[in-house]
Specification:
This protein is of the alpha/beta class and 599 residues long. The protein has 22 helices and 14 strands. The strands form 4 sheets. It has a 5-stranded parallel β-sheet, sandwiched between helices. The protein has a 4-stranded antiparallel β-sheet with strand order 1-2-4-3. A 3-stranded antiparallel β-sheet has the order 8-9-10. Helix 5 (134-152) links the parallel strand 5 and strand 6 (156-163).
Length: 599
């Protein structure tokens, strides 16, 4: 049982004994004692004054005295500051807590049971006309971390992706490839498939702009020119052919999308991102149409004179929303309805989380209402996990398009940066094989990237600063990884010296406040995981890891471990260190960040 629970029970008993009244557990407020006072846990006695009919100080003293006699193995001392009863928890209790952590390999994690809800998390969701960029990186990292956190909170989690693989954007790339590609393939050019397609998307845009300029110079308005340019007309024709299942267009589309998927797979693998089930818009958009027509029949939607189908959301304080165009073609919203239908057919979804940038806030507000109207139980409470923009400081690493930072380039650059760092800075790794050095650079480079992005509140816009992210002396992934590697090295040395850590530890001397502080912080980890789950907030795990590591480093600085002569203390500090490293491992693991055994 948690120590807070034991104290709560004793306090309830104390109030009954001292003042003859029953109080509910919820009235017992125990908090961490403020740094300026001595003690570890503080009981707020104000709620009991009506019962005690005494001054706050006297009530607190009554209860302190009671606890010290009732549970002496837990409460060893107390002091009173006005209505606050500061409790000093015994060293025995702290070592018991540490032993409990030690004996729980899944500390902080709650396993799902048969009754646990099924949470589906959608993230990534790229279009197939270009490679993934920095925005996708933030998306993927948040999605993966969130999935881990939800599953650590006892949910069944299904990780999913919707690939927007059809529409005018992919036709543009296809058309440009036909016109300017001379049959280029990923194999013939050595260019990764998603990048190759991205290049043609850029080429389309370039030629399209030229045509617009030309038409405008002949006197057309910009709007007209954009509409009348031969290239866009051809792209539209291609889309119609695609929708009509034209075999040639479909074959080209399939081939080019395969190139893109092969490219995405590599990016996902390098980022350490994966999915349980991927959906494709080309499979879902027709389902969406059907669902919309069903809704039309039920009177949920209405048809305008031109034949288009709309949802009237003015009652909900929104506007009217187009669901099918007058020519019967579907819009972005339509495919989301279809995707929802297929997902629900495949999984008994209790909660749906969409990880999508905040420029789509309105879209998901509307989607939620539409799904609710259409009878999806989880529609009303769907979560749009909405995150802000991420950019690099000016002038850093823009892709060929000059607008976005390419995900593959970024990952490569981070790993190269980590490699340079380890070569300049920490020359301790002299006996590493090339293979090991490469692996460490990968772990550290990615750790820097992931941690820097995840430590920030997801809703905020942010700058990703590669140099800062990889600094070993800040709130960074590598700083945490380094501390982990250092602890692992101590533990290896201890093992080599034949020192074993027992399953339960009995303290022979009083623990220092630093040591107690560390244990107390570790004991808070499960609550942090829970909080991260209720708030959908990976950053609180990141920042907890940082605080824990800082606290450990102070301890490491102030105390000797392997050189400690008192064997009992030495063993205790090794156990303490081992448990800190375990929690770092679990915590960083929730963020999708690996930690190296040496660094
Ligand atoms: N592919 C879309 C885009 O790049 C994002 C899709 C988000 N997910 C969704 N269910 N609508 O803008």
């Amino acid at each position: 049982m948690k120590i807070e629970n034991k104290i709560t029970t004793a306090v309830i008993h104390g109030i009954k004994t001292l003042y003859g009244q029953n109080v509910a557990p919820a009235t017992i407020q125990l908090q961490k004692t403020k740094k300026e006072f001595s003690g570890h846990l503080t009981l707020v006695v104000f709620p009991f004054l009506k019962i005690s009919h005494k001054k706050p100080e006297d009530t607190a003293t009554d209860l302190g005295t009671f606890l010290k006699t009732e549970i002496p193995s837990i409460v060893s001392e107390f002091n009173v500051v006005k209505g606050f009863l500061n409790l000093v928890i015994s060293s025995t209790s702290w070592t018991e807590i540490l032993s409990d952590i030690h004996n729980n390999d899944h500390f902080g994690l709650t396993a799902a049971s048969e009754q646990s809800p099924l949470v589906m998390i959608e993230y990534s969701s790229p279009n197939t006309n270009k490679p993934l960029h920095l925005g996708h990186v933030r998306n993927n990292l948040l999605g993966c971390a969130l999935a881990n956190i939800m599953s650590a909170n006892g949910n069944h989690v299904v990780k999913t992706n919707i690939v927007n693989d059809r529409g005018i954007h992919i036709c543009k790339s296809m058309l440009a490839w036909l016109k300017y590609g001379n049959g280029a393939t990923p194999e013939s050019t050595g260019i990764k498939g998603d990048h190759l397609i991205g290049d043609y998307y850029v080429a389309f845009d370039k030629h399209y702009k030229e045509q617009i300029k030309e038409l405008m110079s002949k006197g057309m308005s910009e709007e007209e020119a954009k509409n009348e340019a031969p290239l866009i007309k051809e792209a539209r024709e291609m889309l119609v052919k695609w929708e009509n299942n034209d075999p040639e267009v479909r074959a080209l589309w399939r081939k080019m999308n395969e190139w893109v998927y092969a490219g995405f797979d590599i990016t996902y693998k390098n980022l350490g991102v994966n999915f349980d089930k991927i959906y494709y818009e080309s499979d879902t958009y027709l389902e969406g149409k059907e669902k919309v027509l069903e809704g039309l029949e039920k009177g949920l939607f209405y048809r305008r004179e031109d034949g288009s189908v709309w949802a009237d959301l003015t009652k909900e304080g929104l506007d009217e929303k187009l669901l099918l165009r007058s020519d019967g073609t579907s819009v972005y919203m339509t495919q989301d309805i279809g995707t929802a239908k297929l997902r629900f057919r495949d999984f008994p979804i209790n909660k749906m989380i969409y990880v999508v940038g905040n420029e789509q806030n309105y879209h998901f507000q509307v989607l939620s209402i539409l799904l609710d109207k259409l009878g999806f139980e989880w529609g009303k409470d769907l979560v749009h996990f909405s995150y802000g923009m991420v950019e690099l400081p000016n002038g850093k690493m823009k892709s060929r398009e000059g607008t976005v930072v390419d995900a593959d380039d970024l990952v490569e650059e981070m790993i190269a940066g980590a490699r340079r760092m380890s070569e300049d800075k920490i020359n301790k790794l002299t006996n590493l094989s090339e293979e090991e050095a490469t692996e460490i650079a990968r772990i550290v480079g990615l750790g820097a990237l992931k941690y820097f992005i995840l430590k920030v509140d997801a809703r905020k816009n942010m700058l990703f600063n590669p140099a800062e992210s990889i600094d070993f002396n800040g709130n960074t992934g590598p700083f945490i990884q380094y501390t982990y590697a250092r602890i692992r090295s101590i533990l290896r040395k201890a093992a080599e010296a034949g020192i074993t850590i027992p399953d339960t530890f009995t303290a022979q001397a009083e623990l220092s406040e630093k040591e107690i502080g560390l244990i107390q912080m570790m004991a808070e980890f499960p609550a942090v995981v829970k909080q991260a789950g209720t708030d959908y907030n990976p950053s609180c795990i990141a920042n907890y890891c940082y605080d824990l590591v800082k606290e450990y480093n102070q301890f490491y600085h102030d105390f000797s471990i392997l050189r400690e002569e008192d064997e009992n203390k030495k063993t205790f500090r090794l156990m303490l260190s081992a448990e800190v490293s375990k929690i770092i491992h679990i915590g960083m693991g929730l963020l999708g960040i690996e930690v190296p055994e040496r660094m």
